[in-house]
Amino acid sequence: MCDVRTRTFLLVTAACVGLWWGCGDGSGPTSKPRTFLMGFSAIPPRVDSTAGVIAAINNWAPHADAAIMHVSPPWAAMLGGATPDSAVRTVELPLANYYRTKGLAIVFTVDATDGLNRAAEAPELVSAGRSITDTMVQRLYRDWVLAVATRIRPDYLGLAAETNLIRQLAPDSVYQALVTMANAVVAQIRLRRFSSKLFVSVQVETAWGRPNGPYQGIAQDLADFPFVEALGLSSYPYLGGFADPESIPLDYYSRIPQGTTLPVLVVEGGWTSVSVGGVMSSPAEEARYITRQEQLLDSARARGVFQHVLRSRPARLPAAATGFDLAAVHAPRVGRQRDACEAGPRGVGRRVQPALPGIAIESQSAPMLNAALSAPVTLSALALSV
Question: For residue 218, which of 56, 255, 267, 270 sits 20 to 30 Å off, Cα-Cα?
Fold first, then answer.
């Protein structure tokens, strides 16, 4: 649902070591550990310069445990002659390296179709008169994904986004092409014994049959993508007909993987802070959604939450899909027991239980955004559950 075609253009040469903030020496107030990771994307308030990207990252990195990269293959560049490996080396790899200098785990999602219109293919392919049904385009996908796996080696690598929604809306030939090329690149990745856990994401509202249908589940997705080692979720409950956050069932996330042992990654979602068309909302209602989402994440045993930071909407992104306002993120968790450590000797941060093996994790909760970002922003929440 997010505008994944805006590719990050960060070209970083200088390394910057991240600062871990903790809860002090234990003499401050006690707090219940937050069991999920917190992180952000490289999208700055305005995508107008490399400096803006770096500044945005430097604002949130001291408070984060991980980072997310949700990227469309650079179809136009590759069709124009750029090699998939060079595309990854010059764009995605510098950003990933910058994250790693700050001690951040990396989640990478590949979005091969139109992130704002699942009935359509990627705009760059449409403009070029090409399709992922083309054998040559499928080869570019495989080579680019393999370059991502080889050079970036993310902790989690998603090979397709919102597969059930694509199956529902796009031509069957497009969905079948996605299935074919995702499964094909898995064999190449596993041949090289990379450690990245592989996943695809599904759309939660579609799986639940929202707004009017019966529960659909994701059996077909599990059958079509049998390689998955984790399951990604995308969820915009207000677009699925929920009038208020409290009406979202507590098992809204956790029901999706039932019958499997797959860990869950909530990689996309949000609740509008403004009223648009027939959708009525406000920053206060959005704040209530964040409170409710915390409960959904706990129910699904989530271990992380990611946010995309946006000041103004991408040209193709409807206002109702822009996600969380800073004030809404800040409000519901202030003063809660989980955030009590913010009053401790070092002022910010609280230790969380390690959610990824071998990674020492120390961060603070959502209210840190108030200090990390100096201007009003809109946030579209992404969450990681492992």
Answer: 270
